[in-house]
Structures are given as C-alpha cells and as structure tokens.
C-alpha cells in the first residue's frame, strides 16, 4: 500500500516491482545479487482520480512513457529492501508534484515611486561617473 495523501492510496497490485542486477562497479557481489528495483506503474489503469491521471500524463518527464507508464529504476543502495523503499518514495514524489496547483501569474507594473527612485539612482550614478573625468585647469 502506497499512501499519497489521507484519502488517496495506491494498492500493491497496481505497482509492478521486479528485482534486477544493479549497474556499475561493485565487485563480485554486483554480479550475483539482484539488488536494484525496477518499478512500473500504469497511470491509465490505476485507481487514481481522473484529475491526477490527466496531470500525470501531461507531465514532461522522461520517466513517463508514451503509453502512460511510469518507470523508475532504483539502485542507489546495496540492499533490495532499501531500493524498493526508494523507488516507492520516488513514485510518491512524482504523484505529489501533480497535486500542487500553481498560481496563475498576473502581470504587474512597477509603482510610480519605484520608477522615480530607480531613475534618481541612475542620475546620481551618472553624475558620479561624470565627475571622474580629467580635471581641467
């Protein structure tokens, strides 16, 4: 059971976990033990609310395939249990990012006071630089 929020839970049968051999250096152990975890989660076939599915499918994320399947490979740790927890936590984070609705950006204009202060500071700076010139006798 993967709990996303208080009222949204993903059951274990919706998440496909498989153990694979980890890549990279690690000596003899890496060749014998399948410690990495390959997680697959089908967004379209899941029990998530429709709002979440639409937002997840519209994400521009390389971990989400064209078919709507999230693929996560966890191989950070040496043990299979830690990698499994890491993969599930990363899936939770992907789904949680969708829940946050971003505010609509409204364009604003600078105030008259801030415009005046900016122009005053520019003119002062200009005067300081003009006074740096060569002194005439």
Describe the protein's topology:
Layout: E1 2-3, E2 9-10, E3 15-20, H1 28-32, E4 36-42, H2 50-58, E5 69-74, H3 80-99, H4 112-130
Antiparallel strand pairs: 1-2, 3-4, 4-5
CATH architecture: 2-Layer Sandwich
Q: Would you tell me which CATH topology applies?
A: Double Stranded RNA Binding Domain
Can you write the helix and strand succession as a string?
EEEHEHEHH
Specify the oligomeric state: single chain
What is the terminal-to-terminal distance?
87 Å
Could you give a short account of the major beta sheet?
3 strands, antiparallel
For the largest sheet, list the strands in their spatial order. Answer: 3-4-5
Radius of gyration, whole Å:
27 Å
Which parts are unreliable, with pLDDT below 50 for 5 consecutive residues or more? Answer: none
Q: Could you tell me the mean pLDDT?
A: 85
What does this structure look like?
The protein is α+β, with helices and mostly antiparallel strands and 137 residues long. It has a single domain (2-99), classed as Double Stranded RNA Binding Domain (2-Layer Sandwich), CATH 3.30.160.20. It has 4 helices and 5 strands; from the N terminus they run E-E-E-H-E-H-E-H-H. A hairpin with a 5-residue loop joins strand 1 (2-3) and strand 2 (9-10). The mean pLDDT is 85.
Descriptive tags:
single chain; 137 residues; alpha+beta; Double Stranded RNA Binding Domain; three-stranded antiparallel β-sheet; two-stranded antiparallel sheet
């Amino acid at each position: 059971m993967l709990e996303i929020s208080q009222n949204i839970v993903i059951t274990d049968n919706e998440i496909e976990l498989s153990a694979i051999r980890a890549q990279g250096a690690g000596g003899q152990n890496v060749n014998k033990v399948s410690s990495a975890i390959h997680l697959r989660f089908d967004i379209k076939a899941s029990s998530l609310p429709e709002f979440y599915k639409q937002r997840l499918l519209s994400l521009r994320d390389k971990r989400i395939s064209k078919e709507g399947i999230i693929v996560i490979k966890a191989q950070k740790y040496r043990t299979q249990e830690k990698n499994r927890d890491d993969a599930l936590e990363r899936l939770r984070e992907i789904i949680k990012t969708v829940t946050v609705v971003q505010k609509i950006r409204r364009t604003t204009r600078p105030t008259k006071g801030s415009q005046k202060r900016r122009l005053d500071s520019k003119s002062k700076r200009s005067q300081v630089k003009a006074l740096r010139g060569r002194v005439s006798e």
